[in-house]
Amino acid sequence: MLGLMQDWPLLCHRILEHAAAIHGNQEVVTRSVEGPIVRTTYKQVYERALKVSQALDKDGIKLGDRIATIAWNTTRHLECWYGIMGIGAVCHTVNPRLFPEQIAWIVNHAQDRIVITDLTFVPVLEQVAAKLPSVERFVILTDKAHMPQTSLKNAIAYEDWIGECDGDFKWKTFDENTAAAMCYTSGTTGDPKGVLYSHRSNVIHSLMANSKDALGTSSADAMLPVVPLFHANSWGIAFSAPAMGTKLVMPGPKLDGASVYELLNTENVTCTAGVPTVWLMLLNYMSQNNLKLPHLKFLVCGGSAMPRSMIKAFVDMGVEVRHAWGMTEMSPLGTLGALKPPFSSATGEERLDVLQLQGYPPFGVQMKITDDAGRELPWDGKTFGRLKVSGPAVSKAYYRIDNKILDEDGFFDTGDVATIDEHGYMRITDRSKDVIKSGGEWISSIDLENLAVAHPAVAEAAVIGVHHPKWDERPLLIVQLKQGQNASREDILKFMEGKIAKWWMPDDVAFVDGIPHTATGKILKTALRDQFKSYSFPNAAA
Ligand code: AMP
Q1: Can you tell me the distance from the alpha carbon of 421 to that of 357, in angstroms, rounded to the nearest whole number?
Q2: Cα 422 from Cα 213, distance rounded (Å)
Q3: Does ligand 1 come within 6 angstroms of the Cβ of 303?
Q4: DSSP letters of 283-303?
Q5: What stretch of H or E contains 488?
Q6: Mutational test site, ligand 1, from 95, 185, 230, 416, max ligand atoms within 8 Å of CB
Q7: Which terminus of the chain, N or C, has less C-beta within 10 A?
Q8: Is residue 246 annotated as a catalytic residue, yes or no?
Q9: Could you give the 3-state DSSP secondary structure of residue 202?
Q10: Which of 188, 442, 482, 526 is catalytic?
C-alpha cells in the first residue's frame, strides 16, 4: 500500500522560493569584487535569480546543460546558482585556485556551455579560452562600468545580461533526481573526478545540515561562509541558510584575517564556517591587534583536521567550536563534533579531547570501518580502518567514469583511515595513502602533525612516510616555524616525547620555509614526497 501524501519533488529552487516568501526582508550582504559592501535581501536574490534563468533560457540553455561558475562567494554568484538550477541546468562550480590547464580539463570534461566568472579570473580564462570548444559565452559578474576589454567569446557583463530580462518567468518542476550541481574533486593524483549532485540529494543534505547538532542556524543568526561556493557546495550553506532565513554575509575575494574579521565584527556575524588555514589567519590578526569578537557564537571548521591549539583559542573566546569532516562526494557533510551526552558537561582538557574528534554523523549518513579485506572493525575508539559511508547525499558513481565505487553493501570508500568509538564519534587518523606503515603497524600522520603544531614555535607541520631499510617506512616531520621564532630538532622532539607511543616518534625533523597546499587548503603531501624523495634518515643504516 502506498501513502497518500502529495508528490512534492525536492527541488533546490524551492528553498529560495521559501526564503523569499517567508524571510523576504532578511539581508544578504556581500563584499563585492569591485570593492564596496553590497546589501540585498532574499526577495531580491530570488527576483534576480529568476532573471538569470530567463537569460539562460534566451541563450538556449536546456534541462541538463552544464553551466560553469568560477567565482567568489557573492550575492551574484548565489543568484546564478539558483537561476541555473531553477531551469534544470547543472551548476558546475569550478575551483579558480586550480592551474589554468586543470580548469580547462574540467570545463572540457563537463562540456560546459556557458562560463560565469568574476573579474578576478578573466585573465586566467583568456589564457585557456581557445582550448574550451564547448563554451559558447562568458558572463562576467559585474556591471557595464567595470566591464573590462576582453577577448572572451560573446562576453557580456552580468548586469547587462540579466538587465535584458524582466523576471516574468516561472521555475520549472521536474523529477527530484534530476542533476542540479556538479563539482570536481581536487585529487592530488590522477585526473579530477566529477561529482554530480541531484536536487533531491542537495535538499536532503540541507535538511541534515540544518539540524541543531550539525550547522543548525536560525532566522536570528548571521552566517558568514568563508568556505567557498566552489569548495564542496560551501558545505551546503547556500541551501541551508536560505532554508532557515539566516542572514548571509558573503566575503567575496578577501579571505585574509583582517577582511574576515571586519565582516564578522561589523555585520554582527553569529556563525561562520571555513578551513583551518582561514582560522589561523584570523587568530593571528586578532592576537596581533588585541581584538575580540563579541557577536560570534559558533564556528565550524573542516576540510582538514582542526588543531587542538586552534580549538582552545576559540573555546577560550567563548565560541562554540564544531569540528566537521566530509568530502565533495558526500555533498559534503559526513560528521560533526557536537558534544552529546555524556560529554555535554565535560570541561577543560576532556572537553577539548572530544571537540578534537571529527564527530558523529547526522541522520542520513551511515558509516563503518573495515580492514583491507572489507571486514568490519570494532567501534572501540582505537582500531583504525578504512572509513566507508552511505546515504542519500553520498555519490554512487563519478560523472562519465565507468568504474564501480561502492562495495557490495553500497558503501563508498572515503579513502580516509579512522577510528570510531562506542558513542559513534569518528576520528580521522589519515588518508589511506598517507598513513605511515612502520614494521606492519600504522602510524597516523595527522596525530603527529596535531601534536607538532601544539609546539609554540611551530606554524605548520606535515608528516610523511620515508623509506626505511628496517621498518619499511618511518615518519619524517616537516616543520615551518612561526616568523621570528626558533626551535631546534631536539626541542621539537622533546616536546613530543611522552605524548605518543615511543615507536610513533618521528625519526627526524626537517625545517622548510613553507608547506605546499592543494587548491582547497589541504597539505599537498605529493609535493612534499617529491621534495624529500632523495632524503634518507640519519639512523637508516640497515
Ligand atoms: P574535499 O573533497 O576536498 O572536501 O576533501 C575531502 C577530504 O578532506 C576528506 O576525505 C579528508 O581526507 C579531508 N578532511 C575533511 N575534513 C577533515 C577533518 N575535519 N579532519 C581531517 N581531514 C579532513
Answers
A1: 10
A2: 18
A3: yes
A4: HHHHHHHT---SS--EEEE-S
A5: none
A6: 416
A7: N
A8: no
A9: helix
A10: 442
Active-site residue, 442 included: yes
Q: CATH 3.40.50.12780 spans which residues of the chain?
A: 8-197
CA of 233 to the centre of ligand 1 (A): 14
CB of 475 shorter than 6 A to ligand 1? no
Place of cell 567501534: 379
Asked: is 368-431 a CATH 3.40.30.10 domain? The reply is: no
Task: Tell me if 185 CB under 6 Å of ligand 1.
Answer: yes
Ligand 1 geometric centre to CA of 99 (Å): 21
* pTM, full prediction: 0.91
Within the chain, which residue ranges are assigned CATH 3.30.300.30? Answer: 436-531
Q: Residues of the chain with pLDDT > 70: what percent?
A: 99
Domain 8-197, what fold?
Answer: Rossmann fold (3.40.50)
Q: Which CATH architecture has domain 436-531?
A: 2-Layer Sandwich (3.30)
Residue 160, sorted as left (phi over 0), alpha (psi -120 to 50) or beta, turns out to be: alpha
Closest-CA residue to 454 (of 302, 256, 311): 311
Closest CA relative to residue 298, chosen from 235, 231, 217: 217
Cell of 378: 570494532
From CA 459, how far away is CA 479, in angstroms rounded? 8
Contact 109, 98 (CB under 8 A): no
Q: Verify whether ligand 1 is closer than 6 Å to residue 395 (CB atom).
A: no
Give ranges for CATH 2.30.38.10 in the chain: 368-431
Question: pLDDT for 250-275, tens place per residue?
Answer: 999 999 999 999 999 999 999 999 99
